[in-house]
Structures are given as C-alpha cells and as structure tokens.
What we know:
Layout: E1 8-10, E2 16-19, E3 39-43, E4 51-58, E5 64-65, H1 75-126, H2 129-138, E6 147-148, H3 151-157, E7 166-169, E8 173-180, E9 183-190, H4 198-208, E10 219-223, E11 230-234, H5 241-247, H6 257-270, E12 275-277, E13 286-288, E14 294-296, E15 303-305, E16 312-313, H7 325-330, E17 332-333, H8 335-351, H9 367-377
Parallel strand pairs: 6-10
Antiparallel strand pairs: 1-2, 3-4, 4-5, 7-8, 8-9, 9-11, 10-11, 12-15, 13-14, 16-17
Helix pairs in contact: 2-4, 6-8
Keywords: ATP-binding, Glycoprotein, Kinase, Membrane, Nucleotide-binding, Serine/threonine-protein kinase, Signal, Transferase, Transmembrane, Transmembrane helix
Protein name: cGMP-dependent kinase, Concanavalin A-like lectin/glucanase domain protein
Membrane topology: Single-pass type I membrane protein
Amino acid sequence: MLDTGNFVLYDNDFRITWQSFDHPTDTILPGQFLSTYQELFSSKSESDYSTGRFRLKMQSDSNTWAPPTPGNKTTGNKNQTVIPVLAAGIGGGLAAILVFLLLAYWGVRQHEQVKKRKLKENFFKQNGGIMLQQLEYQNESTVEKAKIYTEEELMKATNNFNEGNVIGQGGYGVVYKGVIADAVFAIKKSKVVDRNQIDQFANEVVILSQITHPNVVKLLGCCLETPVPLLVYEFVTNNTLFHHLHDEGCASSIPWKIATETAEALTHMHSAAVHIIHRDIKSANILLEDGYTAKVSDFGVSRLFSPQETHLATLVQGTFGYIDPEYFHSGILTQKSDLYSFGVVLVELLTGAKVVSFDREEKNRNLSLYFLSAMEDD
C-alpha cells in the first residue's frame, strides 16, 4: 500500500502485477486476508519501500481501520504548525508598518524643524540682526552689548504672550510682563516695522542699550527671529503718569519732581554723542517707580541725529494733542518737537485735565489751545 492510497502487488522482480487504482471496486485481492490485529503498512513510493504514512489494521470486530503510522505527522499537526507561523508573519508585518510610520513621522518633524529654523534665520536678517552684530563688534571695547533673546525664551517668559500679561498697549505695539530667570521684564511686541529703516533700528538698539540715565527706561535686549522685533526693557513697577492723572484721578498728590526728572532725561538724550529725538513724549510714556521716580519709555518712533544735523524731514508720527504744530504741518523734526510735547505734559500735570477731551466745547477740546485761551482770558 502506497502513501497515495494505492494498493500495489509486485512479483519477484518487483514488477506491478495488480494495483487498486486500476480496479476501484476492489480493496483486497481475492483470496487475500488480514488476521485479527494484523497490520498492512504503506510504502512511501513505488521506489521507496520504507514505512509510509498509512497502515491497515484488522480489529477484533472484523472492521479494518487506518490509524497514522507511529512517528509520522498528520494533517492536524500541520495545521497546528501553520497557525504560529501565520501569527509570526502578521506580527512581523505590523512591526514593519510601525517602524515605517515612526520613520515617516521623524522625517516630517525634521523637515518642519529645518523649515522653522530657516524662517527664523530669514527674520533675523530682515530685522537687522546682521547689522546689529556688526555694530556691536565695532564698538565691542566701549559699549555694553544688548542681549539677543530667542523666541522660545520670550514665549516662555510671557506664557505664549498671554493676554493676562499685557501691561500696556498703543498704536505701535503691545507690552507684556515677562519673567526670565526669576527677574521681571517688560517685553514690547511691535505691530509693524518699517523695512526701510532696519539699519537705523539696529543702530537704535545699540545706542539705547547704552543709555544708563536713571530717568530713562533701560533697553536690555531684543529678539529678531520673529516677524517683527521684540524689545526687552527693565520692568517699572508703578504704572504710568497717565494712569495716576486720569484713571486714579490723583493729580494733586503727584510730586512735581516728575517734571524735573523728565526734563533731565530729555536733556540727556538731546545732548548724547548721537542725539535722540523721542517723537512721542506724553504722560502714557512716562513710567513711575514706587517712589514716583520718572522713567521715559517707548522709543518705537524715536529718531537719531548726528551732532551736525539740526533737523530732519520725516513722516509725522506721535500722538494727537502732543504733536508740535510746526512739525505737524511741515514734517520737519527738531529737538523743539520733543520740548513742545513736554510742555503739554506740564499743562496736563498742572491742570489734571486730559490732553484731548470731547467733554469740553469744540474750540477747547485740545488742552494746549484751551490752556492758552484761559491764560489770555486772565
């Protein structure tokens, strides 16, 4: 009997004389018999007579059955082998997919980081970073460097520029309170920047960082890797002169030393090696410390003059009510423009009235005109 299920009869020369595949209805040759418990084993093939997979066994009840040959694997064993192999294949496939996804994610992250770094480098150049570094290098032996902060440092300091940290805002930017290494700073985020004035902006940062006058807010550094520059100033604790005059309504208790200290700050800026014209002197830009020490702040529209220059033709900028009328009509900027604005602050201190008020009749809405009119009436 072969593993194919074919019963084969050989002669003495091992030639097939009969096979069951040729006689499908026969199972055992006529006259052939199996004794009880006698076994008939299959051969592996026609040329290999070693014990095959099947055997016939006569039972005591005269029934024959075909148990598998001892030591040979059955179809069931094959199935049992296939299951773990299939599971291992599926697990390996999932692992490969996971590795591919991780590599793809890492590649995307790397691409985004490179893109972000290049964007910051472009902003740094656009905002005058190269010029600033050159100016600081040229003056390395004589000046204190303005610190250049990273965007991450200032975002962390302000809790991602959270609105709860806003301490002031105007037409040119928003000022946030920030904490860096347990020290408190004021961080100004400009709304716009004039790309044509980038070189001057870098020069301005260098110069303003050197002003150490006690009545001028100290510029400590900047961040240039953002769409618009961020400026970092010392933090002044007691709000603005405007707040105390108009929000608190305590003009009578404000010491006049504020006027003296503001005048000293202007004198210092106007007589520096490179003259600084503030262009936006007003009560909201005069900060106060706890002892009412005045600090002139916000140099966002300030301009620099060489000692040889007496005036500069420029676009009119400032705050309505404080702007020098001659500068407003001609566009010619001089130190006198700052002095006019300071004069308006003095009237504001003296009267406690707002510089522009629609509560007054139309001809007196501007405080300067109202004050002059009152002086003439007296």
